[in-house]
């Protein structure tokens, strides 16, 4: 929500996407959650009957029923003690497991810095377990304890996590933050591979510059994931070798890193052969040929608009959707 716009509260908005409908492309439902808490990402439950949403400032988690009447969702549960029970702040990424919801946080209650962890809830909204991000040396690299996104490769029994920054930074005015030398020191620079079943980190990778979104290739037989770093404008691939060992590879740049184009969201095609990358400061989107993930090639770029953020492509690869933010 934004003060002075509409009711000023965070809300879940439903848009009609039925071709030929009289209300196609229009808002057909708006559900307020009763305040402003810095609403952010959402994630479907494993049965896709419910949608979980988090607020990065209030730390509230909202669970919506989206199956009874998809055109008019209802709020069925509000979790208000996330920070109290976990010690974490900023529920960011919601990732469904069978009967569970895995939540990657951004910060903590002690100092609002970047050290944080992962919380796992059951579908009834009860906390099952919590797992701190690694702050010790694993596989020769020291963990920084930061978190941002997570992604799972179930065939390999691995969880991959990335890193960003804490509440002190992400709630600061963006223009002020980038000019604050001390603030800019407090960004994540690692990714970690975990054993999914034991929830223990098995290897940490040095990935400077705040690696953000994680996308695993969905192509059968592939064993790699890709991310982009916000501050250094790099593309990294995390890949398993023939001996079963995981490695991180710097495979390319996004735009001119010296200009800090600030890569944000990425979208990997269903066949793993194409990657869209958005850069917020430029308002650009770029498409990379990922036929060889170790040597991606930029083949297309277009100006979308100021502060372009999220990008999502359809499974058939025929449509790409964008949103802006801030």
Structure explained in plain terms:
The chain is mostly beta strands. Among the domains are: 1-80, Thrombin, subunit H (Beta Barrel); 85-211, no CATH class. Helices cover 4% and strands 45% of the residues. It has helices at residues 82-86, 167-170, 174-178; strands at residues 11-15, 27-32, 39-44, 50-55, 61-65, 74-79, 88-97, 100-108, 117-122, 127-132, 137-138, 141-142, 150-153, 158-161, 190-195, 200-206, 215-216, 224-228, 234-240, 246-253, 263-268, 274-279, 284-289, 297-303, 308-313, 320-324. It is globular and about 50 Å long. The termini are close together.
How would the blueprint of this fold be written?
Elements: E1 11-15, E2 27-32, E3 39-44, E4 50-55, E5 61-65, E6 74-79, H1 82-86, E7 88-97, E8 100-108, E9 117-122, E10 127-132, E11 137-138, E12 141-142, E13 150-153, E14 158-161, H2 167-170, H3 174-178, E15 190-195, E16 200-206, E17 215-216, E18 224-228, E19 234-240, E20 246-253, E21 263-268, E22 274-279, E23 284-289, E24 297-303, E25 308-313, E26 320-324
Antiparallel strand pairs: 1-2, 3-4, 4-5, 5-6, 7-8, 8-9, 9-10, 11-12, 13-14, 14-15, 15-16, 17-18, 18-19, 19-20, 21-22, 22-23, 23-24, 25-26
Mean pLDDT: 96
The description of the largest β-sheet is: 4 strands, antiparallel
Briefly note the structural class of the backbone: mainly beta
The helix-strand sequence is EEEEEEHEEEEEEEEHHEEEEEEEEEEEE
Stretches where pLDDT falls below 50 for ≥5 residues?
Answer: none
- What is the β-strand count? 26
Number of DSSP helical runs: 3
Proportion of residues in helical segments = under 10%
Task: For the record, give the distance between the C-alpha atoms at the N and C termini, rounded to a whole number.
Answer: 11 Å
